[in-house]
Amino acid sequence: VFSDGDVWPTFRVEEAWAEGLDAIALTDHVEYQPKKDHVSTDRNASYRLAVKRAEELGMLLVAGAELTRRMPPGHMNGLFLQDANALAVEDWKAAVAEVRRQGGLIMWNHPGWVGQQPDGIARWYDDHTALYEQGALWGIEVANQSEVYPEVIEWCRSKNLAMLGSSDTHQPITTENRIARHSHRTMTLVFARERSLAGLREALVQKRTVVYVGDQLIGAEEWLGQVFKRSVIFSPDTITARGRQSVNVSATNTSEIPFHLSLAAPDAVLHAPQRLTLLPGTTAVFQVRATADTLTVDAPVTLRWKVTNLITGKDRGLEFPLQLRAQLKPSR
Ligand SMILES: [Zn+2]
């Protein structure tokens, strides 16, 4: 409410807790205070009001603020701030320097937002090169609300920047139209070693993040591969069959995220379905069988799947090789 939001800061904490989140950042605009005739202009007010409720609920609350400038450089969040009021300066470069002086992290927000890029395509400018080269830019939003910026995935990969996703919510989360289309807000999954602000910060600095937007997870192979491997259990791992007899294979998805698999290439030994959908919290059963009834095989086989909603790059899904052992004999 201290910028253009409609929700009191303690309520933000409550609704995030109710949604099962572990951490949130409140990032009121630094330069934009349309309600200043009615509420305080203290840019630390949100954090100060909400931090006690966050502590009571065991939520981690990150002190932040959004530098709201024309493109370039566009909008940027400072996170882990000491004093957001100190960012209210004329020159955006001085504001960035102040974030860094406070030990804060700088992320570039919604680079393809139609308010600044009418065609919705994110563009990298000289100012971003300058920020990047001085080590000031830590991460970029790959997704904001329901928008996804595929080109940004490639920037983050090639420049080793953190991939981030944000709700950027202004209204109550349940009534935010653009988010209500999905079952959850757009968020960043952070792989932290401990559940503390220090642990969160360490994981963020090291860029151990995955973006969760709609049914998609966006991130590096390293993290998405782990997410998939630890979410889905395939059984059995040995396929024993005679001729073209079918063998049932079950795939149990223990996560809350659906996985959409597509066979990247047919296998010479085992025939498997072209597509599979693994719904959250369910077991799917599919059939495999020998590609010919004359095969005699006792060897490892790899079914080369792609998980099409685990996004590792522009138009690129996670590769998942399912390792099986085939013990096949010709039909009698
Ligand atoms: Zn913004």
Describe this structure in words.
This protein has helices at residues 9-18, 45-57, 92-101, 126-133, 150-159, 177-180, 197-205, 221-231; strands spanning 23-26, 60-68, 75-79, 105-108, 137-144, 147-148, 162-166, 187-190, 209-213, 216-219, 232-235, 238-242, 247-253, 259-263, 270-271, 275-278, 282-290, 297-313, 316-329. The chain has 332 residues and is α+β, with helices and mostly antiparallel strands. Strands 8, 9, 10, 12, 14, 16, 18 and 19 form an 8-stranded mixed beta sheet that branches. Strands 1, 2, 3, 4, 5, 6 and 7 form a 7-stranded mixed beta sheet that branches. Strands 11-13-17-15 form a 4-stranded antiparallel beta sheet. A hairpin with a 2-residue loop joins strand 18 (297-313) and strand 19 (316-329). The longest helix has 13 residues, at 45-57. The chain is elongated, with a radius of gyration of 24 Å. 36% of the residues are buried. The model has no long low-confidence stretch (mean pLDDT 96). The protein binds zinc ion. Zinc ion binds at residues 66, 75, 109-110.
User: What would you report as the Rg, rounded to the nearest angstrom?
Assistant: 24 Å
Q: Which term fits the overall shape?
A: elongated
Q: What's the helix-strand series? A: HEHEEHEHEEHEHEHEEHEEEEEEEEE
Uncertain stretches: none
Q: Please give the largest β-sheet.
A: 8 strands, mixed
Beta-strand portion reads: 35-45%
Number of helices: 8
**Helical residue percent band:** 10-25%
User: Quick one: how many beta strands?
Assistant: 19
Class by helix and strand content?
A: alpha+beta
The overall average pLDDT, rounded, is 96
Distance between the termini: 76 Å
